[in-house]
Amino acid sequence: MTLSGPDFKQMLKTAWSQMVSDPLAAQSVIDQARTLVEPTELESIELDFHSGWCLIFQGEYLKSLTPFSNALALAERLNAIDPTMRICNGIGMAYYNLGRYGLAERYYERSLELNLQVGNSNGTFAALLNQALLHFQTDDLDNAERLLNRALGSDTREVSLENLGEAALLQANLHSKRSAFDDALLGCRAALKFAQQLNYWHLEIQALIAVARCQRLQGRLVEAETTLMVTIDHPEFDREGVSGLSAYIELAKVRASQGRFALAVMAVRTGLKRSDSPTLSLTQLRALEVLSICLEQGGKYQASMRVLRRALDVERKLQDQDMRRQFEVRQLQAKIDEQRLENQITDHENRLLKATQARLQLINDLSRELASTLALEDIAPKLYDIVSQRLDVHFVSLALNHPTRQGVEFVSIIDNGQAVPVYCIPYQVSDSRAVQTAQSGEPILVGDETDKEDVNWVGNSQILPRSQLFMPLVHNRQVLGLFSLQSRFADRFSQEELELLKSLAPFVAITLSNAVSHQRLFELNQALTHEKTQMETAQARIEHMAHHDTLTGLPNRRLLSEFVDNKVREAAETGRTFYLVYIDLDGFKPINDRHGHRIGDQVLVVLGKRLSQSLRKADFAARVGGDEFIIIIDDLEPATQVNGFIKRILSVIEQPLKIGKEKLHLSASIGVAKYEQHGQSLDELMHHADQAMYNIKRSGKGGVAFAGAQKLG
Q: Which of 208-212, 376-380, 413-417 has the lowest average pLDDT?
């Protein structure tokens, strides 16, 4: 079966009508159309154009660039303006969603120019709206409002309801950003009206979320919660991905504002558990951050910390994903540019039948040699190997243009086959032809200057150049750099050869762009690795601070509890017991009162070090209060050794301390409890040891006492 022209157009119309609500079904219709027709070139453009938009509505933005670029290359070759402007709008949308705003702006601008050229009011409105959305996304509210007002101020009679609805929602969001909530709600209502007319459920859900956000910011929390519950109950809500999760985030904020933190936590977790919730996105990261805050405000600090760690992990993965995606986009854009250039070159060759096989061979050799080149220093030698054999040149240089640094940087110079030291030329050297080429973006051809005086030649060889060519390397409308050639022959570069080198320049420019991107990616990887190391170091420092006393560096009560729990399990397995030694300093308060807290803190630091140094490897010391310490020691045989060991600790404490010019004396009251005999948990052991210690305290001087026993001395 072969489709007729009207049937083919009807299938495309059907696919377009299904695009928003069911892009997979729309793609199925397009695939069916491909099998039922042998498409003309214009029909192939339409098929690829519709496939690109199907991928856009499926969220496959990177994949959409392939059919769009195929369609654009063919449309440009046919000089078909109508599909070209529609395709540019689609490519701009893909790059916008990939976060490549510069490229998106470039294609939106081109779409706008073409739509204005042919007087397409709906296309002009869409291009202006997309540019306004782009500026809104980057918080450039003034330009976003200017572009939106320009769109709304045009003739909108031929503008689609879908575009008008999107414009109303953007206007509402702009008002909301400027805290004009009443105006924002009017915009939301307009968007809802358009959405209901179109049965455009995605726009309706977005508008409802925007309404709830305005209500929350106005303090109308009950109304906001009601609006969000209506949104979540929407029959098409389960088909929402990012917007669906955004609704739960907004609901959590409403409940948190009411102090209902448990319900706020429940809302975010429900959103994250949805099957269609984005697994790795900025919205997921925002949801985790909101969840962490709600848990913290609800007093769930450990849970909050776990969620925060998960958020940091998602942020790192997003950075990695963004880096990979940017690299893929650059590669794809390079392929698109290369394809476009190859098409231009092919068309040029078809129009100029006098072009020779040698010229084509030169282009093929250069593109093949440069295709895999990613190192800046390798480009000029490969260029030299190719052009020196065909154009009688003995000198090739490659330079980068640095407008921000106001100069031209030569990255490679080959003179008569030998590398020459590189250098930079500032823009102030206005008579430099390299500078002139970089700033003007136009080639400069020098026929013969051998009779001129005060001409500075670059290079180390004895060959005197008579003719020179400086060729700019332009990529994405920017002069990335230039290459220059020198020949010993006067007027060596004919007009035909100049055109040939102009055709070669885009290939060199793409290679130069890829090499610069590769170098920046390498530097970015190094920066990310460094940042990861810093984060891991900070995390280790936080973990240490959570388990150690900040003054003495000794373990704190939390780490003591974990250690005792391990000792209890070990005792259950091996039968070995242990002692808890409770130390309370005597005479510390008078030191603090007389000499101040700074001296007191130094006393505690010194005593902490003394205790650590007097213990065995298996023993454990912790600071649990202002002047209170706990020591855990294994059982000793015979039992009298325990008494001697603890008395040695007391003698260590009682040794004089010299802090600055002060010589200070301290003692301690020490209570000792034995595992199992006096308790089987940290609290029980501390209780009995504490009682024994206070028996010593009441006697008025330092000493050691075991729980349930008399003072040892």
A: 376-380
For residues 587-600, give the mean pLDDT: 87
SS3 100: coil
> At 663, which helix (H) or strand (E)?
strand 662-664
Place of tokens 């009601």: 226
- Alpha-carbon separation of residue 550 from 301, 542, 605 (angstroms): 20, 11, 10
Measured distance between the N- and C-terminal CA atoms of the chain, rounded to whole angstroms: 108
Indicate whether 701 pLDDT > 50: yes
Residue 359 above 70 pLDDT? no
Contact predicate 163/125, CB 8 Å: yes
Q: Judge: domain 557-706, CATH 3.20.20.60.
A: no
Query: Could you give the CA distance from residue 567 to residue 675 in angstroms, rounded to a whole number?
Result: 10
3-state secondary structure of 615: coil
pLDDT at 685 over 90: yes
Long-range contacts formed by 492-497: CB under 8 A, 24+ apart? 492/391, 492/392, 492/393, 492/466, 492/467, 493/391, 493/445, 493/467, 493/469, 497/391
C-alpha to C-alpha distances, 210 to 181, 228, 500, 552, 626, nearest whole angstrom: 10, 10, 56, 53, 53
Burial of 64 (0-12, 13-18, 19+ CB in 10 A): buried
Helices (H), 221-300: 221-232, 242-257, 261-273, 282-297
Rg, the chain, Cα only: 38
| Sequence ranges of the domains in the chain | 241-349, 352-521, 557-706
d(CA 484, CA 613): 72
- Give CA 558 to chain center in angstroms: 36
C-alpha distance from residue 24 to each of 15, 57, 91 (Å): 10, 9, 19
* The amino acid at 661: K
| Closest of 29, 30, 94, 86 to residue 58, by C-alpha | 94
Give the whole-angstrom CA distance, residue 403 versus residue 414.
Answer: 25
Q: Which two tokens stand for residue 225?
A: 């919660």
Distance CA 213, CA 175 (A): 12
Fold of domain 241-349: 1.25.40
b/e map of 92-125 (b: 16 or more CB within 10 Å)?
A: bbbbbbbbbbebbbbbbebbbebbeeeebeebbb
- pLDDT exceeds 70 at position 322: no
For residues 659 and 603, is the Cβ–Cβ distance under 8 A? yes
Task: State the Cα–Cα distance between residues 513 and 374, nearest whole angstrom.
Answer: 9
Element (H, E) at 369: helix 357-370
How many other CB atoms sit within 10 Å of the CB of residue 579? 24
> What does the DSSP 8-state code read for residue 61?
H
Q: Give the distance, in angstroms, between the CA of residue 136 and the centroid of all CA atoms in the same chain.
A: 19
Integer Cα distance of 404 and 436 in angstroms: 16
Burial of 239-277, coded b for 16+ CB within 10 Å and e otherwise, reads ebbebbbbbbbbbbbbbbeeebbebbbbbbeebbeeeeb
**Contacts (Cβ under 8 Å, ≥6 apart) of 28:** none
- Note the pLDDT tens digit of each residue in 273-284: 875 555 667 778
The CATH classification of domain 352-521, taken from the options 3.30.450.40, 3.40.190.10, 3.20.20.70, 1.20.272.10: 3.30.450.40
Q: What are the start-end ranges of the H helices in 392-454? A: 433-440
Report the distance separating Cα 108 and Cα 127, nearest Å. 6
